[in-house]
Amino acid sequence: MKTDFKWIRIIELSLILFVAMIVAVSVGSANLSVEDSLKIVLDKLPLLGNLVDVSDLGTTYEVIVWKVRMPRIIMSALVGGALAVVGAAFQGVFGNSLADPHILGVSSGAALGATFGMLTGISVSFFGLGPIGVFAFIGAIIAVFFVYNVSKIGGEISTTNMLLTGTAISTMLSSIISLLMTFDQERIDRVYMWTLGSFTAANWEKNAFLVIIVTIGVAIMFSLSGKLNVMMMGEEEAKSLGVDTVRTRRTIIIVSSMLVASSVSVSGVIGFVGLIIPHTVRMIGGPNNKKLMPYAFLCGAIFLLMCDTIARTIASPTEIPVGIITSIFGAPYFVALIIKNKKKV
Amino acid sequence: MEERLQQISAENIVWQPSKKKAPVLDHIDLELKEGCFYGILGPNGAGKTSLVRQLLRFKDSTSGTVSLDYTDIRDIKRNDIAKKLAFLPQIINSSVDFTVQEVVAMGREPYRKNFVPLSNEDIKAIDEAMKFTDCEKLRDKSISFISGGERQRVMIARTIAQDTPWIILDEPVSSLDITHQTQLMRLLDNLRNEKKKTVVAILHDINLATGFCTHLVFMKNGRVFKEGAVEELLTQENLKELYDMEFEFIDVEGRNRPYVVPKYL
Fold this sequence. Notes:
The complex is a heterodimer of chains A (345) and B (265).
Chain A: H1 7-26, H2 34-44, H3 59-93, H4 106-120, H5 131-150, E1 152-153, E2 156-157, H6 159-183, H7 188-196, H8 204-223, H9 225-233, H10 235-240, H11 245-267, H12 273-285, H13 289-313, H14 322-344
Antiparallel strand pairs in A: 1-2
Chain B: E1 7-15, E2 25-33, E3 37-41, H1 48-55, E4 63-68, E5 71-72, H2 78-81, E6 85-88, H3 100-105, H4 120-132, H5 148-161, E7 166-170, H6 178-194, E8 198-202, H7 206-212, E9 215-220, E10 223-229, H8 230-233, H9 236-243, E11 247-250, E12 259-262
Parallel strand pairs in B: 3-8, 3-9, 6-7, 7-8
Antiparallel strand pairs in B: 1-2, 1-4, 4-5, 9-10, 11-12
Helix pairs in contact in B: 4-5
Protein backbone atom coordinates (compact mmCIF):
# COMPACT_ATOMS: atom_id res chain seq x y z
CA MET A 1 0.00 0.00 0.00
CA LYS A 2 1.31 3.40 -0.90
CA THR A 3 -0.40 6.75 -0.41
CA ASP A 4 0.29 9.61 -2.77
CA PHE A 5 0.77 12.01 0.14
CA LYS A 6 3.26 11.42 2.93
CA TRP A 7 1.79 10.84 6.39
CA ILE A 8 4.80 12.52 7.95
CA ARG A 9 3.95 15.78 6.12
CA ILE A 10 0.33 15.56 7.27
CA ILE A 11 1.48 15.07 10.87
CA GLU A 12 4.01 17.92 10.63
CA LEU A 13 1.44 20.32 9.19
CA SER A 14 -1.17 19.28 11.76
CA LEU A 15 1.34 19.93 14.55
CA ILE A 16 2.15 23.36 13.12
CA LEU A 17 -1.58 24.09 12.96
CA PHE A 18 -2.03 23.03 16.58
CA VAL A 19 0.91 25.13 17.79
CA ALA A 20 -0.37 28.11 15.78
CA MET A 21 -3.77 27.68 17.42
CA ILE A 22 -2.33 27.64 20.94
CA VAL A 23 -0.14 30.69 20.25
CA ALA A 24 -3.08 32.51 18.62
CA VAL A 25 -5.33 31.79 21.57
CA SER A 26 -2.74 33.28 23.95
CA VAL A 27 -2.20 36.60 22.21
CA GLY A 28 -4.58 39.54 22.19
CA SER A 29 -5.60 42.44 24.39
CA ALA A 30 -5.41 40.18 27.42
CA ASN A 31 -2.16 38.28 27.11
CA LEU A 32 -2.03 34.77 28.53
CA SER A 33 0.93 32.48 28.86
CA VAL A 34 1.06 29.78 26.20
CA GLU A 35 1.16 27.21 28.99
CA ASP A 36 -2.06 28.44 30.59
CA SER A 37 -3.97 28.57 27.32
CA LEU A 38 -2.72 25.11 26.43
CA LYS A 39 -4.11 23.89 29.79
CA ILE A 40 -7.50 25.48 29.16
CA VAL A 41 -7.71 24.01 25.66
CA LEU A 42 -6.65 20.55 26.81
CA ASP A 43 -9.19 20.72 29.63
CA LYS A 44 -11.94 21.03 27.02
CA LEU A 45 -10.83 18.00 25.05
CA PRO A 46 -12.31 14.60 25.75
CA LEU A 47 -10.06 12.15 27.70
CA LEU A 48 -7.11 14.58 27.92
CA GLY A 49 -9.32 16.92 29.93
CA ASN A 50 -9.00 14.75 33.02
CA LEU A 51 -5.22 15.08 33.04
CA VAL A 52 -5.02 18.84 33.54
CA ASP A 53 -6.10 21.00 36.40
CA VAL A 54 -7.38 24.48 35.54
CA SER A 55 -8.98 25.39 38.84
CA ASP A 56 -6.24 27.94 39.60
CA LEU A 57 -6.69 29.89 36.34
CA GLY A 58 -10.03 31.54 36.96
CA THR A 59 -13.09 31.70 34.75
CA THR A 60 -12.24 35.01 33.03
CA TYR A 61 -9.36 33.41 31.24
CA GLU A 62 -11.47 30.42 30.39
CA VAL A 63 -14.10 32.68 28.84
CA ILE A 64 -11.49 34.59 26.84
CA VAL A 65 -9.84 31.43 25.56
CA TRP A 66 -12.83 29.20 24.99
CA LYS A 67 -15.73 31.54 24.29
CA VAL A 68 -14.02 34.49 22.59
CA ARG A 69 -10.83 33.44 20.84
CA MET A 70 -11.20 29.73 20.12
CA PRO A 71 -14.39 29.94 17.99
CA ARG A 72 -12.70 32.58 15.89
CA ILE A 73 -9.53 30.54 15.50
CA ILE A 74 -11.42 27.41 14.52
CA MET A 75 -13.51 29.37 12.02
CA SER A 76 -10.51 31.02 10.36
CA ALA A 77 -8.82 27.62 10.04
CA LEU A 78 -11.91 25.98 8.53
CA VAL A 79 -12.47 28.82 6.06
CA GLY A 80 -8.77 28.92 5.13
CA GLY A 81 -8.69 25.18 4.52
CA ALA A 82 -11.90 25.17 2.51
CA LEU A 83 -10.89 28.11 0.30
CA ALA A 84 -7.48 26.55 -0.41
CA VAL A 85 -9.01 23.21 -1.43
CA VAL A 86 -11.57 24.93 -3.66
CA GLY A 87 -8.79 27.01 -5.24
CA ALA A 88 -6.79 23.86 -6.00
CA ALA A 89 -9.84 22.16 -7.50
CA PHE A 90 -10.86 25.17 -9.61
CA GLN A 91 -7.35 25.64 -11.00
CA GLY A 92 -7.45 21.99 -12.04
CA VAL A 93 -10.99 21.89 -13.40
CA PHE A 94 -10.69 25.14 -15.35
CA GLY A 95 -7.08 24.50 -16.39
CA ASN A 96 -6.39 28.10 -15.46
CA SER A 97 -3.81 29.29 -12.93
CA LEU A 98 -5.78 32.46 -12.23
CA ALA A 99 -8.88 30.59 -11.10
CA ASP A 100 -9.71 31.21 -7.45
CA PRO A 101 -12.76 30.38 -5.30
CA HIS A 102 -14.43 33.70 -6.11
CA ILE A 103 -14.22 33.40 -9.88
CA LEU A 104 -17.70 32.02 -10.51
CA GLY A 105 -19.50 34.95 -8.97
CA VAL A 106 -20.33 33.08 -5.75
CA SER A 107 -18.71 35.76 -3.62
CA SER A 108 -20.19 38.72 -5.46
CA GLY A 109 -23.57 37.09 -5.12
CA ALA A 110 -22.90 36.70 -1.39
CA ALA A 111 -21.76 40.31 -1.11
CA LEU A 112 -24.90 41.58 -2.83
CA GLY A 113 -27.01 39.37 -0.56
CA ALA A 114 -25.18 40.71 2.50
CA THR A 115 -25.60 44.30 1.32
CA PHE A 116 -29.29 43.67 0.81
CA GLY A 117 -29.47 42.23 4.34
CA MET A 118 -27.72 45.26 5.82
CA LEU A 119 -29.75 47.85 3.95
CA THR A 120 -33.20 46.36 4.50
CA GLY A 121 -32.62 45.30 8.07
CA ILE A 122 -34.89 42.26 7.74
CA SER A 123 -34.16 39.85 10.58
CA VAL A 124 -33.86 36.14 9.87
CA SER A 125 -31.48 33.58 11.27
CA PHE A 126 -30.41 30.06 10.54
CA PHE A 127 -27.75 27.91 12.22
CA GLY A 128 -26.35 30.88 14.10
CA LEU A 129 -26.12 32.89 10.89
CA GLY A 130 -27.64 36.33 11.30
CA PRO A 131 -29.60 38.08 8.55
CA ILE A 132 -26.42 39.13 6.76
CA GLY A 133 -25.11 35.58 6.66
CA VAL A 134 -28.40 34.14 5.52
CA PHE A 135 -28.80 36.68 2.72
CA ALA A 136 -25.16 36.22 1.73
CA PHE A 137 -25.68 32.48 1.45
CA ILE A 138 -28.83 32.87 -0.65
CA GLY A 139 -27.12 35.46 -2.88
CA ALA A 140 -24.14 33.16 -3.43
CA ILE A 141 -26.32 30.22 -4.43
CA ILE A 142 -28.47 32.29 -6.82
CA ALA A 143 -25.38 33.75 -8.52
CA VAL A 144 -23.65 30.44 -9.12
CA PHE A 145 -26.90 28.77 -10.20
CA PHE A 146 -27.30 31.47 -12.83
CA VAL A 147 -23.69 31.26 -14.04
CA TYR A 148 -23.87 27.47 -14.16
CA ASN A 149 -27.02 27.35 -16.26
CA VAL A 150 -25.89 30.02 -18.69
CA SER A 151 -22.66 28.09 -19.30
CA LYS A 152 -24.35 24.82 -20.13
CA ILE A 153 -24.24 23.69 -23.73
CA GLY A 154 -26.42 20.66 -24.38
CA GLY A 155 -26.06 19.31 -20.84
CA GLU A 156 -22.28 19.78 -20.72
CA ILE A 157 -20.63 22.70 -18.99
CA SER A 158 -18.20 24.72 -21.05
CA THR A 159 -15.44 25.74 -18.64
CA THR A 160 -14.44 28.72 -20.77
CA ASN A 161 -18.02 29.98 -20.84
CA MET A 162 -18.25 29.48 -17.12
CA LEU A 163 -15.16 31.57 -16.40
CA LEU A 164 -16.35 34.33 -18.73
CA THR A 165 -19.91 34.35 -17.41
CA GLY A 166 -18.62 34.20 -13.82
CA THR A 167 -16.38 37.21 -14.39
CA ALA A 168 -19.14 39.17 -16.13
CA ILE A 169 -21.65 38.42 -13.38
CA SER A 170 -19.12 39.28 -10.64
CA THR A 171 -18.47 42.65 -12.20
CA MET A 172 -22.15 43.35 -12.65
CA LEU A 173 -23.02 42.38 -9.07
CA SER A 174 -20.18 44.52 -7.68
CA SER A 175 -21.54 47.46 -9.63
CA ILE A 176 -25.00 46.89 -8.20
CA ILE A 177 -23.48 46.94 -4.71
CA SER A 178 -21.73 50.23 -5.50
CA LEU A 179 -25.01 51.58 -6.86
CA LEU A 180 -26.89 50.61 -3.70
CA MET A 181 -24.19 52.21 -1.60
CA THR A 182 -24.45 55.47 -3.53
CA PHE A 183 -28.05 55.75 -2.43
CA ASP A 184 -27.34 54.79 1.17
CA GLN A 185 -24.05 56.44 1.99
CA GLU A 186 -24.46 56.08 5.74
CA ARG A 187 -23.95 52.36 5.60
CA ILE A 188 -21.09 52.31 3.08
CA ASP A 189 -18.56 51.58 5.83
CA ARG A 190 -20.29 48.46 7.01
CA VAL A 191 -20.79 47.00 3.56
CA TYR A 192 -17.26 47.87 2.52
CA MET A 193 -15.73 46.33 5.65
CA TRP A 194 -17.83 43.20 5.16
CA THR A 195 -16.51 42.69 1.65
CA LEU A 196 -12.95 42.69 3.01
CA GLY A 197 -13.70 39.80 5.33
CA SER A 198 -13.65 39.42 9.09
CA PHE A 199 -13.99 36.72 11.76
CA THR A 200 -15.24 39.10 14.47
CA ALA A 201 -18.68 37.52 14.51
CA ALA A 202 -17.43 33.95 15.05
CA ASN A 203 -19.20 31.71 17.54
CA TRP A 204 -19.57 27.99 18.19
CA GLU A 205 -22.97 27.80 16.56
CA LYS A 206 -21.66 29.05 13.21
CA ASN A 207 -18.71 26.71 13.57
CA ALA A 208 -21.05 23.75 13.92
CA PHE A 209 -22.66 24.73 10.61
CA LEU A 210 -19.26 25.22 9.02
CA VAL A 211 -17.74 21.97 10.35
CA ILE A 212 -20.53 19.91 8.81
CA ILE A 213 -20.31 21.55 5.39
CA VAL A 214 -16.50 21.68 5.27
CA THR A 215 -16.10 18.05 6.38
CA ILE A 216 -18.54 16.70 3.82
CA GLY A 217 -17.42 19.08 1.07
CA VAL A 218 -13.70 18.54 1.50
CA ALA A 219 -14.17 14.76 1.75
CA ILE A 220 -16.00 14.76 -1.59
CA MET A 221 -13.24 16.87 -3.13
CA PHE A 222 -10.55 14.47 -1.83
CA SER A 223 -12.50 11.54 -3.24
CA LEU A 224 -12.48 13.12 -6.70
CA SER A 225 -8.80 14.08 -6.66
CA GLY A 226 -7.65 11.07 -8.71
CA LYS A 227 -10.27 11.72 -11.38
CA LEU A 228 -9.30 15.40 -11.43
CA ASN A 229 -5.65 14.43 -12.01
CA VAL A 230 -6.61 12.42 -15.08
CA MET A 231 -8.88 15.20 -16.35
CA MET A 232 -5.95 17.63 -16.20
CA MET A 233 -4.21 15.47 -18.82
CA GLY A 234 -7.12 15.97 -21.21
CA GLU A 235 -10.82 15.30 -21.64
CA GLU A 236 -10.54 12.26 -23.91
CA GLU A 237 -7.72 10.69 -21.95
CA ALA A 238 -9.84 10.96 -18.82
CA LYS A 239 -12.73 9.27 -20.62
CA SER A 240 -10.44 6.51 -21.86
CA LEU A 241 -9.37 5.93 -18.25
CA GLY A 242 -12.98 5.43 -17.22
CA VAL A 243 -13.77 8.88 -15.81
CA ASP A 244 -17.25 10.31 -16.31
CA THR A 245 -15.85 13.78 -16.96
CA VAL A 246 -19.19 15.59 -17.18
CA ARG A 247 -20.38 14.28 -13.83
CA THR A 248 -17.04 14.79 -12.08
CA ARG A 249 -16.79 18.38 -13.26
CA ARG A 250 -20.37 19.11 -12.22
CA THR A 251 -19.85 17.62 -8.76
CA ILE A 252 -16.64 19.57 -8.18
CA ILE A 253 -18.28 22.85 -9.20
CA ILE A 254 -21.41 22.33 -7.09
CA VAL A 255 -19.55 21.15 -3.97
CA SER A 256 -17.00 23.98 -4.32
CA SER A 257 -19.76 26.53 -4.60
CA MET A 258 -21.37 25.22 -1.41
CA LEU A 259 -18.02 25.48 0.38
CA VAL A 260 -17.39 29.01 -0.84
CA ALA A 261 -20.97 30.13 -0.14
CA SER A 262 -20.77 28.91 3.46
CA SER A 263 -17.31 30.38 4.01
CA VAL A 264 -18.27 33.74 2.60
CA SER A 265 -21.54 33.91 4.51
CA VAL A 266 -19.77 33.52 7.87
CA SER A 267 -16.71 35.64 7.21
CA GLY A 268 -17.14 37.86 4.15
CA VAL A 269 -15.02 37.79 1.03
CA ILE A 270 -11.46 36.81 1.88
CA GLY A 271 -9.25 36.94 -1.16
CA PHE A 272 -5.89 35.46 -2.02
CA VAL A 273 -5.95 32.34 0.20
CA GLY A 274 -7.58 30.27 -2.52
CA LEU A 275 -5.14 31.57 -5.12
CA ILE A 276 -1.72 31.48 -3.46
CA ILE A 277 -1.98 28.50 -1.12
CA PRO A 278 -2.65 25.91 -3.86
CA HIS A 279 0.04 27.47 -6.07
CA THR A 280 2.57 27.50 -3.24
CA VAL A 281 1.89 23.87 -2.37
CA ARG A 282 2.04 22.92 -6.06
CA MET A 283 5.41 24.63 -6.53
CA ILE A 284 6.82 22.62 -3.66
CA GLY A 285 4.98 19.32 -3.94
CA GLY A 286 3.81 19.08 -7.55
CA PRO A 287 0.35 19.07 -9.16
CA ASN A 288 -0.89 15.64 -7.98
CA ASN A 289 -4.26 16.52 -6.41
CA LYS A 290 -4.12 13.49 -4.15
CA LYS A 291 -1.42 15.19 -2.13
CA LEU A 292 -2.07 18.78 -3.18
CA MET A 293 -5.56 18.84 -1.67
CA PRO A 294 -4.77 17.56 1.84
CA TYR A 295 -1.60 19.68 2.06
CA ALA A 296 -3.44 22.75 0.76
CA PHE A 297 -6.23 22.25 3.30
CA LEU A 298 -3.76 22.31 6.21
CA CYS A 299 -1.64 25.13 4.78
CA GLY A 300 -4.73 27.23 4.06
CA ALA A 301 -5.92 26.69 7.62
CA ILE A 302 -2.52 27.69 9.08
CA PHE A 303 -2.19 30.71 6.78
CA LEU A 304 -5.62 32.21 7.41
CA LEU A 305 -5.40 31.53 11.14
CA MET A 306 -2.10 33.43 11.29
CA CYS A 307 -3.46 36.26 9.15
CA ASP A 308 -6.50 36.63 11.38
CA THR A 309 -4.33 36.66 14.50
CA ILE A 310 -2.30 39.48 12.97
CA ALA A 311 -5.50 41.24 11.90
CA ARG A 312 -6.88 41.36 15.44
CA THR A 313 -3.65 42.08 17.33
CA ILE A 314 -1.38 44.28 15.20
CA ALA A 315 -3.33 47.53 15.62
CA SER A 316 -5.29 46.53 18.73
CA PRO A 317 -7.84 47.64 19.77
CA THR A 318 -8.65 48.46 16.12
CA GLU A 319 -9.37 45.41 13.98
CA ILE A 320 -7.97 45.28 10.48
CA PRO A 321 -10.09 43.35 7.94
CA VAL A 322 -8.39 40.00 7.45
CA GLY A 323 -8.58 40.24 3.63
CA ILE A 324 -6.12 43.13 3.81
CA ILE A 325 -3.64 41.06 5.81
CA THR A 326 -3.86 38.04 3.48
CA SER A 327 -2.89 40.26 0.55
CA ILE A 328 -0.28 42.45 2.25
CA PHE A 329 1.61 39.51 3.72
CA GLY A 330 0.66 36.89 1.15
CA ALA A 331 1.54 38.71 -2.06
CA PRO A 332 5.23 39.49 -1.33
CA TYR A 333 5.79 35.93 -0.13
CA PHE A 334 4.14 34.59 -3.24
CA VAL A 335 6.18 36.81 -5.56
CA ALA A 336 9.37 35.76 -3.76
CA LEU A 337 8.41 32.14 -4.27
CA ILE A 338 7.87 32.70 -7.99
CA ILE A 339 11.29 34.34 -8.31
CA LYS A 340 12.95 31.51 -6.38
CA ASN A 341 11.22 28.94 -8.55
CA LYS A 342 12.32 30.71 -11.72
CA LYS A 343 15.96 30.40 -10.67
CA LYS A 344 15.52 26.67 -10.07
CA VAL A 345 14.49 26.09 -13.68
CA MET B 1 -5.00 -9.58 -17.71
CA GLU B 2 -8.35 -11.03 -16.73
CA GLU B 3 -10.46 -9.21 -19.27
CA ARG B 4 -10.72 -10.50 -22.81
CA LEU B 5 -12.18 -8.87 -25.86
CA GLN B 6 -12.53 -10.96 -28.98
CA GLN B 7 -13.79 -8.32 -31.34
CA ILE B 8 -14.89 -4.77 -31.84
CA SER B 9 -17.44 -4.21 -34.54
CA ALA B 10 -18.79 -1.03 -36.04
CA GLU B 11 -22.11 -1.34 -37.87
CA ASN B 12 -23.26 1.34 -40.22
CA ILE B 13 -21.65 4.16 -38.22
CA VAL B 14 -22.53 7.67 -39.31
CA TRP B 15 -21.16 10.66 -37.48
CA GLN B 16 -22.26 14.12 -38.43
CA PRO B 17 -21.02 16.87 -36.09
CA SER B 18 -24.00 19.08 -36.94
CA LYS B 19 -26.95 18.80 -39.30
CA LYS B 20 -25.66 21.48 -41.63
CA LYS B 21 -22.28 19.80 -42.08
CA ALA B 22 -21.36 16.82 -44.22
CA PRO B 23 -20.90 13.55 -42.31
CA VAL B 24 -17.34 12.90 -41.15
CA LEU B 25 -18.02 9.17 -40.93
CA ASP B 26 -20.21 7.89 -43.74
CA HIS B 27 -21.71 4.43 -43.07
CA ILE B 28 -18.74 2.57 -41.69
CA ASP B 29 -18.77 -1.19 -41.27
CA LEU B 30 -15.71 -2.70 -39.69
CA GLU B 31 -14.76 -5.74 -37.66
CA LEU B 32 -11.54 -5.82 -35.68
CA LYS B 33 -10.40 -9.18 -34.27
CA GLU B 34 -8.27 -9.97 -31.27
CA GLY B 35 -4.60 -10.86 -31.72
CA CYS B 36 -3.93 -8.62 -34.73
CA PHE B 37 -1.89 -5.46 -35.20
CA TYR B 38 -4.06 -3.08 -37.21
CA GLY B 39 -2.74 -0.04 -39.02
CA ILE B 40 -5.36 2.54 -40.02
CA LEU B 41 -4.13 4.50 -43.04
CA GLY B 42 -5.59 7.26 -45.11
CA PRO B 43 -5.18 10.89 -46.11
CA ASN B 44 -5.83 13.76 -43.69
CA GLY B 45 -9.51 14.35 -43.13
CA ALA B 46 -10.42 10.76 -43.99
CA GLY B 47 -12.07 10.28 -40.59
CA LYS B 48 -9.43 8.08 -38.91
CA THR B 49 -9.44 9.91 -35.58
CA SER B 50 -13.23 10.25 -35.68
CA LEU B 51 -13.57 6.50 -36.16
CA VAL B 52 -11.28 5.81 -33.20
CA ARG B 53 -13.36 8.23 -31.10
CA GLN B 54 -16.41 6.16 -31.92
CA LEU B 55 -14.69 2.91 -30.98
CA LEU B 56 -13.83 4.43 -27.57
CA ARG B 57 -17.26 6.05 -27.11
CA PHE B 58 -15.87 9.57 -26.77
CA LYS B 59 -18.73 10.86 -28.90
CA ASP B 60 -22.16 9.39 -29.55
CA SER B 61 -22.68 8.41 -33.17
CA THR B 62 -25.43 9.99 -35.25
CA SER B 63 -26.56 6.50 -36.24
CA GLY B 64 -25.14 2.99 -36.16
CA THR B 65 -23.71 0.91 -33.38
CA VAL B 66 -20.28 0.04 -32.02
CA SER B 67 -20.21 -3.27 -30.15
CA LEU B 68 -17.60 -4.87 -27.94
CA ASP B 69 -18.12 -8.64 -28.20
CA TYR B 70 -21.72 -8.12 -29.37
CA THR B 71 -22.64 -5.74 -26.51
CA ASP B 72 -23.63 -2.23 -27.58
CA ILE B 73 -20.89 0.08 -26.28
CA ARG B 74 -23.55 2.51 -25.02
CA ASP B 75 -24.66 -0.17 -22.55
CA ILE B 76 -21.18 -0.61 -21.09
CA LYS B 77 -20.05 1.59 -18.22
CA ARG B 78 -17.18 3.89 -19.06
CA ASN B 79 -15.13 2.35 -16.31
CA ASP B 80 -15.66 -1.13 -17.78
CA ILE B 81 -14.68 0.06 -21.27
CA ALA B 82 -11.49 1.38 -19.66
CA LYS B 83 -10.66 -2.16 -18.52
CA LYS B 84 -10.83 -3.42 -22.13
CA LEU B 85 -9.51 -0.56 -24.26
CA ALA B 86 -6.55 1.70 -23.52
CA PHE B 87 -5.97 4.82 -25.58
CA LEU B 88 -2.98 6.93 -26.47
CA PRO B 89 -3.94 10.32 -27.91
CA GLN B 90 -2.19 12.10 -30.76
CA ILE B 91 -1.28 15.14 -28.66
CA ILE B 92 0.00 14.61 -25.14
CA ASN B 93 -0.55 17.41 -22.69
CA SER B 94 2.76 17.98 -21.00
CA SER B 95 1.91 21.40 -19.55
CA VAL B 96 1.01 19.94 -16.17
CA ASP B 97 4.04 18.97 -14.14
CA PHE B 98 3.12 15.40 -13.20
CA THR B 99 6.02 13.02 -12.62
CA VAL B 100 6.48 10.03 -14.90
CA GLN B 101 5.53 7.72 -12.04
CA GLU B 102 2.28 9.66 -11.47
CA VAL B 103 1.37 9.53 -15.15
CA VAL B 104 1.95 5.78 -15.36
CA ALA B 105 -0.05 5.33 -12.12
CA MET B 106 -3.02 7.01 -13.83
CA GLY B 107 -3.33 3.80 -15.83
CA ARG B 108 -4.63 2.18 -12.63
CA GLU B 109 -7.48 4.70 -12.31
CA PRO B 110 -10.19 2.30 -13.62
CA TYR B 111 -9.36 -0.15 -10.81
CA ARG B 112 -9.04 2.32 -7.94
CA LYS B 113 -11.59 3.13 -5.29
CA ASN B 114 -12.03 6.44 -3.49
CA PHE B 115 -9.70 7.04 -0.53
CA VAL B 116 -7.86 3.74 -1.12
CA PRO B 117 -4.12 4.15 -1.71
CA LEU B 118 -2.31 2.27 -4.49
CA SER B 119 -2.46 -1.47 -3.72
CA ASN B 120 0.53 -3.77 -4.05
CA GLU B 121 -1.03 -5.11 -7.22
CA ASP B 122 -1.24 -1.56 -8.63
CA ILE B 123 2.39 -0.89 -7.74
CA LYS B 124 3.46 -4.15 -9.36
CA ALA B 125 1.58 -3.27 -12.57
CA ILE B 126 3.16 0.20 -12.64
CA ASP B 127 6.70 -1.10 -12.06
CA GLU B 128 6.31 -3.80 -14.68
CA ALA B 129 4.98 -1.34 -17.24
CA MET B 130 7.91 1.00 -16.66
CA LYS B 131 10.35 -1.87 -16.93
CA PHE B 132 8.82 -3.09 -20.19
CA THR B 133 9.09 0.35 -21.76
CA ASP B 134 12.48 1.16 -20.19
CA CYS B 135 11.15 4.17 -18.25
CA GLU B 136 12.47 3.26 -14.80
CA LYS B 137 15.20 5.89 -14.85
CA LEU B 138 12.67 8.59 -15.69
CA ARG B 139 10.45 7.70 -12.70
CA ASP B 140 10.77 10.95 -10.74
CA LYS B 141 11.24 13.30 -13.69
CA SER B 142 8.50 15.70 -14.73
CA ILE B 143 6.80 14.82 -18.03
CA SER B 144 7.32 18.46 -19.07
CA PHE B 145 11.08 17.98 -19.06
CA ILE B 146 11.61 14.75 -20.99
CA SER B 147 12.03 14.29 -24.74
CA GLY B 148 9.20 13.49 -27.14
CA GLY B 149 10.40 9.91 -27.57
CA GLU B 150 10.62 9.37 -23.82
CA ARG B 151 7.17 10.88 -23.33
CA GLN B 152 5.71 8.49 -25.88
CA ARG B 153 7.29 5.54 -24.03
CA VAL B 154 5.84 6.81 -20.74
CA MET B 155 2.39 6.98 -22.31
CA ILE B 156 2.76 3.42 -23.60
CA ALA B 157 3.77 2.42 -20.06
CA ARG B 158 0.53 3.97 -18.84
CA THR B 159 -1.52 1.93 -21.30
CA ILE B 160 0.33 -1.22 -20.17
CA ALA B 161 -0.40 -0.38 -16.51
CA GLN B 162 -4.04 -0.05 -17.52
CA ASP B 163 -3.85 -3.78 -18.22
CA THR B 164 -6.31 -3.92 -21.10
CA PRO B 165 -6.44 -6.60 -23.81
CA TRP B 166 -6.54 -3.89 -26.52
CA ILE B 167 -4.58 -0.69 -27.11
CA ILE B 168 -5.69 2.02 -29.52
CA LEU B 169 -3.16 4.66 -30.59
CA ASP B 170 -3.68 7.86 -32.59
CA GLU B 171 -0.55 8.61 -34.63
CA PRO B 172 1.89 7.39 -31.98
CA VAL B 173 5.01 7.91 -34.10
CA SER B 174 4.32 11.03 -36.15
CA SER B 175 6.41 13.36 -33.98
CA LEU B 176 9.37 11.03 -33.57
CA ASP B 177 12.65 10.63 -35.46
CA ILE B 178 13.26 7.45 -37.44
CA THR B 179 15.13 5.62 -34.66
CA HIS B 180 12.44 6.32 -32.10
CA GLN B 181 9.72 5.50 -34.62
CA THR B 182 11.23 2.05 -35.16
CA GLN B 183 11.77 1.54 -31.43
CA LEU B 184 8.18 2.41 -30.67
CA MET B 185 6.77 0.16 -33.39
CA ARG B 186 8.95 -2.66 -32.11
CA LEU B 187 7.61 -2.01 -28.61
CA LEU B 188 4.04 -2.30 -29.90
CA ASP B 189 4.97 -5.48 -31.72
CA ASN B 190 6.37 -6.88 -28.46
CA LEU B 191 3.15 -5.99 -26.71
CA ARG B 192 1.29 -8.08 -29.23
CA ASN B 193 3.69 -11.02 -29.07
CA GLU B 194 4.64 -11.11 -25.39
CA LYS B 195 1.62 -9.58 -23.70
CA LYS B 196 -0.90 -10.90 -26.24
CA LYS B 197 -2.44 -7.50 -26.76
CA THR B 198 -4.38 -6.40 -29.80
CA VAL B 199 -3.00 -3.16 -31.20
CA VAL B 200 -4.89 -0.64 -33.36
CA ALA B 201 -2.85 2.35 -34.54
CA ILE B 202 -3.49 5.26 -36.88
CA LEU B 203 -0.32 5.62 -38.96
CA HIS B 204 0.95 7.82 -41.75
CA ASP B 205 4.15 6.04 -42.67
CA ILE B 206 3.23 3.26 -45.12
CA ASN B 207 6.53 1.43 -44.67
CA LEU B 208 6.36 1.42 -40.90
CA ALA B 209 2.81 0.14 -41.15
CA THR B 210 3.63 -2.65 -43.59
CA GLY B 211 6.77 -3.49 -41.61
CA PHE B 212 4.96 -4.18 -38.34
CA CYS B 213 1.19 -4.48 -38.86
CA THR B 214 -0.62 -7.71 -39.66
CA HIS B 215 -3.73 -5.98 -41.00
CA LEU B 216 -4.49 -2.66 -42.65
CA VAL B 217 -7.62 -0.51 -42.77
CA PHE B 218 -7.71 2.01 -45.63
CA MET B 219 -9.93 5.03 -45.05
CA LYS B 220 -10.92 7.79 -47.42
CA ASN B 221 -13.70 10.40 -47.38
CA GLY B 222 -15.31 9.05 -44.22
CA ARG B 223 -15.48 5.49 -45.49
CA VAL B 224 -13.48 2.31 -45.05
CA PHE B 225 -12.78 1.37 -48.64
CA LYS B 226 -10.52 -1.63 -48.08
CA GLU B 227 -9.46 -3.72 -45.12
CA GLY B 228 -7.62 -6.97 -44.72
CA ALA B 229 -4.24 -8.64 -44.28
CA VAL B 230 -1.24 -6.57 -45.32
CA GLU B 231 -0.31 -9.01 -48.13
CA GLU B 232 -3.72 -8.67 -49.76
CA LEU B 233 -4.00 -4.91 -49.49
CA LEU B 234 -0.51 -3.84 -50.40
CA THR B 235 -0.87 -3.22 -54.15
CA GLN B 236 0.03 -0.21 -56.24
CA GLU B 237 -3.60 0.16 -57.34
CA ASN B 238 -4.92 0.29 -53.76
CA LEU B 239 -2.35 2.84 -52.67
CA LYS B 240 -3.02 4.98 -55.72
CA GLU B 241 -6.70 5.00 -54.93
CA LEU B 242 -6.03 5.78 -51.26
CA TYR B 243 -3.64 8.69 -51.68
CA ASP B 244 -4.26 9.82 -55.30
CA MET B 245 -0.56 9.34 -56.01
CA GLU B 246 1.61 6.89 -57.91
CA PHE B 247 3.83 4.54 -55.91
CA GLU B 248 6.74 2.34 -56.83
CA PHE B 249 7.48 -0.91 -54.98
CA ILE B 250 11.12 -1.80 -54.34
CA ASP B 251 12.33 -5.09 -52.94
CA VAL B 252 14.81 -4.66 -50.13
CA GLU B 253 16.95 -7.50 -48.88
CA GLY B 254 15.92 -8.76 -45.43
CA ARG B 255 12.55 -7.12 -45.65
CA ASN B 256 9.63 -9.45 -46.27
CA ARG B 257 7.43 -6.78 -47.84
CA PRO B 258 8.28 -4.38 -50.65
CA TYR B 259 9.45 -0.88 -49.77
CA VAL B 260 6.93 1.71 -50.95
CA VAL B 261 8.29 4.86 -52.58
CA PRO B 262 6.03 7.67 -53.77
CA LYS B 263 6.70 9.01 -57.25
CA TYR B 264 7.11 12.78 -57.15
CA LEU B 265 6.54 14.89 -60.21
